[in-house]
Task: inverse folding
């Protein structure tokens, strides 16, 4: 305790230096005076008296120094002295300080920003209690991909499982609501009653769903998100128990979720209602459809594998019990796949994020190498200073401490700027990020990120400082003091060359990665999507609140709206479709052709389109005719199929005229047949990278129902985006309550469909550019330093008859050799790096020769420029002047 | 000066505390003189070493200081014992007496066998 008290007082002592100094002086002075007076009284002369007093004291300055040291903490004193000295040194060389700080700040800022994006997604646990026990449960058939769960599976599993403490299923729900007099679509979820319990979160206000809420045809109740409660209901605590109107139905508010609740399974969801499926599992019900996401919370001590094995056994059992029900939706599942929720959510983005993290580490490494190089060069210039200090008695430890303080100061300033940069960078990242990046809201500069920044700043400070400090501190003071010539030691030169080689190698790795990604994206966007995306405006129209069975009203509305849109000046043509290519929608349905046995149903993308859709999209007609306005409810059913589907089923080219049952008509003997009237080109629905071209097109009047959410496509004469407000107004002129969302051009939809690759590309391009600049400045720095140090040698060469061309050649060769070695090493690194990028590449080999050749050419050109400037300076050295200067 | 003993660290603090207890508030010079006198001039004290020791005692809270005026009207810094200092003095004095007694027994003729 008393030690601590003393230490605190001593630390405080450092801050009131002047006052303390004065007190010490006063006290010692008064001591001396008292002593002298005594001595005088004892009969000494004044001279003797003073001398005796000083002797007895033990020296004035030593006493003061001892006194002073007890007053403060000497080690800290030295440190604060070093810090001030370091700052002075930096201020003396603003160019050097600016460059070093800027380079480090960029490195620290970039890696901090990337870390803040990667941390919540890949490393930090999900924001739920015991999040590692929350699992995603999928169904699967032998060797197949996981697919969504059916309600029957969920119910059977819930009744039988011993591995899960609770299970829940959910599906998206977008109720419409009139808020502020405008129709709004609210993102939400329909969930089984244990949803929030499985996540481990309870409402902040009101109560959670219970089993009694999730009954077939049960009460209409909802739980609100904190955000919705605040924006639409002014955070009114009396909301609980109140009625709100959604889709023309009245719902009772049960609860409000806590403010910080992060719903990772549907980040946009603002409202939740119970699922209310039929536990009696009627054979023709949606209870057999595979369209629900299932999550479960493991019991303590149960492993993922155990849960998966047990669930698989239960699923196989259910398959036998409910064979008939499952056969209505493609047969029973044979496996349950149980994945940790976090792994499941991040699986698709993990390769991108890891690749970006890797790239930013390389950038940081380059920044460090660059600054190390700068510090080495500085060290060479300051050799005389270090030698002087060593000669005056500074030991090696003291010199090391001082130099490391300097590099840590550099890093600290850079770290501060880096954090500011990271703050901006994070915002940029979020703006750039692909839509499917999970936990977007959790990406920010928080304490964890600051800690990370602090750690790398310290590491960077030590790393960049250590080599130069060791080199500077073990110089022999004598040779340093003499400073006959300004050649640095061979040792130092070698270190700097090694660093330049490292820089070139890293730059090559970054450039090759960026090049491969760039070529992949080029390849992807060169793939025709199957339609012409230019001059196309799209928007989704979601019908508000009409009862589901009122198909006639829906159809009338869409028809009138289409007519209104076609009348807008500047519109060439327009059509509605139930799903839009490359928009993220993917709805399939089944087809069963007359000429194929009835158990051979085929799944294909279903497009319910208004006549004129193919013309508006410019989807080419291969054979037959397109759909037209005569294909209505009264006419015989007509259907278009895609080329791939036609080729696979009817390889002899006899697709036209084939008869087919579709969707709900499947297996109904009495249902009327539709006839294939035309074959159209394939369209990319999921992604440009995937060939999933099997599709069919049918008009709404000839399909079993009218989709209440449809996408409008408009081909315009001029800029499509400019027409958006007029077209929206045209739709609202028919019915002002319609919800219109996702207004965008087809071209941006196509671009957004490759958002992940694009995201990676943008970042890699930025990193590669930074890498290139750093490598160039590195080569330039080393060579120009070397030219300065070799001025005398070059002068002698010139005096002895070397022509400027000879000297130019000499220096160029020196620089290009370094670049060459760097390229050779970098190639090996790039080959390894490209393997890591494999999942992001498309249509090219990771060893794509064109990319490698191009990158080497660019790097060589940049290196040549960086060498040429110092080489030319060397060639212009005037031998007479240099030799005289010596 | 060969027969004079150097003051070793640790004992100086005890002497300072004891001096302040007997003498009341006193300035540095006074403390130094008093210690020399009490030791019967057997101790050789570099007066300069006294000040860091005083500062340390003050930092530890055993003594407090205050500027005042000496007998002959000179400005000086006076030190006085605090309550904590009094306790510390008792503790250290007891410790010393014990140690001295033990060592004394060893050195007494035939002490080891007793």
Result:
């Amino acid at each position: 305790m008393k030690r601590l008290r003393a230490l605190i007082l001593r630390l405080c002592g450092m801050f009131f230096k002047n006052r303390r100094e004065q007190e010490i002086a006063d006290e010692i002075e008064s001591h001396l005076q008292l002593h002298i007076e005594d001595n005088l009284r004892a009969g000494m002369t004044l001279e003797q008296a003073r001398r005796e007093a000083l002797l007895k004291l033990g020296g004035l300055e030593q006493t003061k120094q001892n006194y002073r040291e007890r007053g403060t903490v000497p080690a800290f004193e030295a440190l604060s002295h070093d810090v001030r000295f370091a700052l002075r040194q930096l201020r003396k060389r603003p160019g050097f300080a600016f460059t070093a700080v800027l380079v480090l700040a960029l490195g620290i800022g970039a890696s901090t920003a990337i870390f803040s994006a990667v941390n919540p997604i890949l490393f930090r646990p999900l924001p739920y209690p015991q999040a590692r026990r929350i699992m995603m449960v999928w169904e699967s058939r032998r060797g197949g991909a996981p697919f969504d769960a059916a309600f029957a599976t969920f119910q059977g599993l819930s009744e039988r499982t011993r591995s899960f403490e609770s299970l829940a299923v959910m599906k998206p729900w977008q109720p419409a609501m009139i808020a502020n007099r405008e129709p709004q679509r609210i993102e939400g979820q329909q969930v089984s009653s244990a949803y929030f319990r499985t996540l481990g979160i309870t409402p902040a206000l009101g109560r959670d769903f219970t089993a009694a809420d999730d009954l077939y045809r049960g009460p209409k109740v909802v739980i609100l998100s904190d955000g919705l409660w605040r924006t639409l209901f002014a955070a009114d605590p009396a909301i609980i128990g109140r009625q709100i109107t959604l889709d023309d139905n009245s719902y009772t508010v049960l609860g409000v979720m806590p403010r910080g609740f992060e719903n990772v399974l549907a980040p946009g969801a603002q409202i939740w209602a119970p699922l209310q499926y039929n536990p009696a599992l009627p054979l023709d019900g949606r209870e057999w459809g595979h369209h629900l996401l299932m999550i479960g919370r493991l019991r303590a001590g149960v492993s993922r594998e155990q849960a998966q094995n047990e669930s698989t056994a239960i699923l196989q059992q259910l398959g036998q019990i409910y064979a008939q029900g499952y056969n209505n939706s493609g047969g029973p599942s044979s496996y349950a796949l149980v994945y940790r929720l976090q792994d499941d959510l991040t699986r698709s983005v993990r390769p991108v994020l890891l690749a970006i993290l890797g790239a930013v580490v390389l950038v940081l490494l380059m920044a460090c190498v660059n600054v190390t190089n700068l510090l080495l060069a500085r060290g060479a210039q300051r050799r005389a200073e270090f030698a002087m200090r060593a000669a005056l008695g500074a030991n090696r430890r003291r010199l090391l401490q001082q130099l490391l303080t300097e590099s840590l100061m550099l890093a600290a300033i850079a770290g501060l700027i880096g954090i500011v940069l990271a703050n901006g960078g994070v915002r940029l990242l979020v703006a750039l990020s692909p839509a499917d990046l999970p936990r977007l809201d959790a990406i920010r500069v928080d304490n964890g990120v600051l800690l990370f920044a602090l750690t790398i700043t310290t590491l960077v400070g030590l790393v960049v400082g250590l080599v130069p400090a060791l080199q500077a501190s073990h110089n022999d003071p004598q040779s340093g003091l003499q400073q006959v010539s300004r050649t640095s030691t061979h040792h130092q030169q070698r270190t700097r060359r090694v660093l330049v080689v490292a820089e070139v190698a890293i730059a090559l790795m970054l450039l090759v990665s960026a090049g491969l990604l760039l070529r992949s994206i080029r390849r992807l966007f060169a793939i025709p999507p199957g339609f012409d995306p230019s001059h196309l405006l799209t928007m989704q129209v979601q019908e508000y609140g009409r009862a589901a069975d009122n198909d006639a009203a829906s159809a009338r509305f869409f028809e009138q709206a289409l007519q209104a849109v076609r009348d807008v000046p500047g519109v060439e043509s327009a059509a509605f479709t139930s799903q839009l290519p490359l928009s993220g929608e993917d709805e399939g349905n089944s087809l069963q052709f007359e000429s194929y046995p009835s158990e051979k149903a085929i799944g294909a993308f279903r497009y319910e389109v208004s006549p004129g859709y193919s013309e508006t999209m410019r989807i080419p007609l291969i054979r037959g005719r397109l759909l037209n306005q005569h294909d209505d409810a009264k006419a015989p059913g007509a259907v278009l199929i895609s080329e791939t589907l036609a080729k696979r089923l009817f390889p002899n080219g006899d697709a036209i005229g084939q008869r087919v049952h579709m969707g709900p008509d499947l297996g109904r003997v009495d249902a009327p047949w539709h006839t294939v009237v035309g074959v159209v080109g394939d369209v990319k629905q999921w992604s440009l990278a995937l060939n999933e071209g099997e599709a069919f097109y049918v008009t709404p009047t000839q399909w079993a129902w009218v989709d209440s959410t449809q996408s409008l496509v408009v081909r315009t004469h001029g800029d499509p985006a400019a027409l958006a407000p007029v077209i929206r107004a045209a739709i609202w002129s028919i019915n002002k309550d319609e919800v219109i969302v996702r207004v965008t051009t087809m071209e941006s939809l196509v671009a957004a469909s490759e958002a992940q690759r694009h995201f990676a590309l943008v970042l890699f391009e930025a990193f590669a550019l930074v890498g290139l600049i750093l490598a160039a400045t590195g080569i330039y720095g080393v060579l120009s330093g070397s030219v300065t140090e070799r001025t005398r040698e070059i002068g002698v060469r010139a005096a002895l008859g070397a022509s400027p061309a000879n000297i130019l050649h000499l220096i160029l060769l020196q620089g290009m050799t370094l670049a060459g070695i760097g390229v050779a090493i970098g190639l090996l690194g790039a080959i390894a790096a490209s393997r890591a990028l494999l999942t992001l590449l498309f249509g090219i080999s990771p060893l794509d020769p064109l990319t490698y050749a191009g990158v080497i050419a660019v790097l060589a050109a940049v290196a040549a420029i960086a060498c040429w400037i110092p080489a030319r300076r060397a060639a212009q050295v005037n031998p007479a002047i240099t030799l005289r200067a010596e | 000066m060969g027969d004079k003993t150097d003051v070793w660290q640790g004992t100086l603090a005890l002497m300072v505390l004891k001096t302040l207890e007997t003498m009341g508030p006193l300035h540095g010079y006074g403390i130094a003189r008093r210690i020399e006198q009490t030791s019967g001039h057997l101790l050789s004290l570099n007066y300069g070493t006294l000040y860091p020791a005083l500062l340390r005692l003050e930092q530890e809270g055993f003594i407090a200081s205050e500027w005042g005026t000496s007998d002959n009207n000179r400005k000086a810094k006076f030190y006085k014992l605090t309550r904590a200092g009094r306790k510390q003095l008792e503790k250290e004095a007891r410790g010393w007496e014990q140690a001295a007694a033990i060592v004394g027994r060893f050195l007494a003729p035939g002490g080891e066998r007793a």
